[in-house]
Design a protein that fits this description.
Layout: E1 3-7, E2 13-23, E3 30-37, H1 40-56, H2 70-81, H3 87-105, H4 115-130, H5 140-156, H6 174-178, H7 187-199, H8 205-220, H9 224-228, E4 235-236, E5 241-244, E6 247-248, E7 254-255, E8 264-267, H10 270-289, H11 308-322, H12 328-343, H13 347-354, H14 359-366, H15 380-386
Antiparallel strand pairs: 1-2, 2-3, 4-5, 5-8, 6-7
Helix pairs in contact: 2-3, 2-5, 3-5, 8-10, 8-12, 12-15, 13-14
């Protein structure tokens, strides 16, 4: 034990030392404590007392927690977690917590949650999903991940000595593997849908607005809420570039993009530029009729920003009338990606256009699509449309 002599401001002297107490019987970590005294003799006495107290307490500093039930722990974790993420993530995690995790584990006392018990619960979830039973939750891996995270928080809060979910083995998800991972139009369906859009009465502003929105999504690969958050100042029509710097969350509030990679510039083809210029003029005319000006590109003239759920309902109707598969708004993004990959764009360039944080994400999602030699990205969409 090294004893340090400390001179205080008032001129007095004290002695201080770091005292090794031993290895914590619960955590397995080495434990030390600081001891201060007026004399070396007193310091040694205090050090011996600290070592004695540590052994008398079962060689651990682990303190009993007042948290006894899983529900208490889960809600305490939620209060700590919720303000660390964006609203969309907050909403999706809360739904898993409230709809799945708490109904499964909420009634258990923490000391009754063992690894075999959690394993049996996860196995039952997996069996229901893999058998295709009605009401089974496809993404049971998310339930397991969230449960494990909450229990790890319990370890940190000293409510439990170890995480019983840590060694649970996650069964393979057969149904997830069977699902078509990417919904998108093939060439025939894309041509059929575009022909349908071109047949709509463009004098009806709603039809015109929706046609421009759908074609814009196909041309850029933007996420729907990135497109709905756009202002005209975000689009440089002279240089054919769309600047993505924001998105809408589920509350229809403007947020920063999903990740740092979400900030990006997307080059657009000349046909899309011409379409947007014409649309801007028509939007201005419609706004004047209402005695206003408009800065939001896809404004519905009612709300500050349009509601994607309302637009989704309209989109389903158009898919039905066009006689094509309902691929949803995200399907336009996948269609854009498949067109570019089949035209030869490199995965790295596609990653940038789509705003994916990792190249592996792009490759995992679109690995089934054919790949050819790389070409410049800016005119691929225009070229691809002409070739079908």
């Amino acid at each position: 034990m090294k004893i340090n002599e400390i001179k205080k401001k008032d001129g007095s002297t004290v002695y201080r030392a770091n005292v090794y107490l031993g290895v914590d019987a619960v955590t397995g970590k080495k434990v030390t404590t600081k001891v201060t005294a007026r004399t070396k003799k007193e310091l040694k006495t205090k050090a011996q007392q600290a070592q004695f107290d540590f052994k008398a307490n079962g060689s651990t500093r682990f303190k009993a927690s007042t948290i006894t039930t899983y529900k208490e722990l889960a809600l305490l974790w939620w209060e700590s977690y919720k303000d660390t993420v964006k609203p969309n993530t907050q909403d999706s995690v809360y739904k898993i917590l409230n709809n799945h995790v708490l109904p499964l584990f909420g009634s258990f006392k923490l000391d009754k949650l063992t690894t075999p018990l959690i394993q049996s619960i996860i196995n039952k979830l997996a069996n229901k999903t893999n058998k295709g039973e009605t009401g089974a939750y496809l993404h049971y891996d998310r339930i397991h991940a969230l449960n494990k995270r909450i229990l790890q928080y319990g370890v940190v809060m000293q409510a439990i000595p170890f995480n019983p979910a840590r060694e649970v083995i996650l069964p393979r998800n057969i149904q997830k593997a069977k699902r078509q991972k990417v919904k998108h139009f093939n060439n025939e369906e894309l041509r059929q849908f575009i022909d349908y859009l071109d047949s709509l009465d463009s004098n009806r502003y709603r039809y015109y607005y929706e046609t421009v929105l759908y074609k814009f999504l196909l041309a850029t690969g933007c996420r729907i809420n990135e497109a709905l958050a756009l202002s005209w100042s975000d689009i440089d029509l002279d240089n054919s570039v769309v600047h993505i710097t924001k998105t809408l969350n589920y509350r229809k509030e403007v947020n920063s993009p999903k990740s740092k990679s979400g900030y990006r510039d997307i080059d657009i083809d000349q046909q899309t530029v011409t379409m947007l210029k014409k649309y801007q003029r028509k939007q201005t005319q419609e706004a004047w009729k209402l005695g206003r000006t408009e800065t939001v590109v896809f404004s519905d003239f009612i709300h500050e920003y349009p509601n994607s759920h309302t637009l989704q309902t309209r989109l389903r109707t158009h898919f039905k009338h066009a006689g094509v598969t309902n691929i949803g708004f995200h399907g336009f993004r996948h269609t854009h990606a498949s067109l570019l990959l089949n035209s030869g764009i490199p995965y790295k360039e596609l990653q940038h256009r789509l705003g994916h944080s990792k190249l592996s994400m792009t490759m995992d999602i679109y690995s089934h699509l054919s790949k050819e030699n790389a070409k410049k990205a800016v005119s691929f969409y225009e070229m691809a449309l002409k070739s079908i």
